[in-house]
């Protein structure tokens, strides 16, 4: 669908800041991933941040996949 309007994009498609606060970039097995917190230790993979095609073929790193992580804050 194409919108022909003079209105700014921010007014047409407002973003929800709370969704971005739940997201973070983590590294698993040398691959950087954008993840979103689902539960306390459960995270859902949103995006693979890699240019290596082999990382996209890894079934454990598919977007939508749930992973469990323990995060330690130093």
Can you walk me through this structure?
The protein is α+β, with helices and mostly antiparallel strands. It has a domain of 46 residues. It has a 4-stranded antiparallel sheet with strand order 1-2-3-4.
Layout of helices and strands:
Blueprint: H1 9-12, H2 17-21, E1 23-28, E2 31-37, E3 42-48, H3 53-57, E4 66-68
Antiparallel strand pairs: 1-2, 2-3, 3-4
Give the overall shape: extended
Distance between the termini: 47 Å
Sheet/helix structural class: alpha+beta
In percent terms, what proportion of residues is strand?
25-35%
Q: What kind of sheet is the major sheet?
A: 4 strands, antiparallel
Taken in chain order, the helices and strands follow as HHEEEHE
Computed Rg: 16 Å
Query: What's the rounded overall pLDDT mean?
Result: 85
Please supply descriptive tags for the structure shown above:
four-stranded antiparallel beta sheet; 31% strand; 74 residues; extended; alpha+beta
Structure at a glance:
This protein is an alpha+beta fold and 74 residues long. Helices cover 19% and strands 31% of the residues. Strand 1 and strand 2 form a beta hairpin.
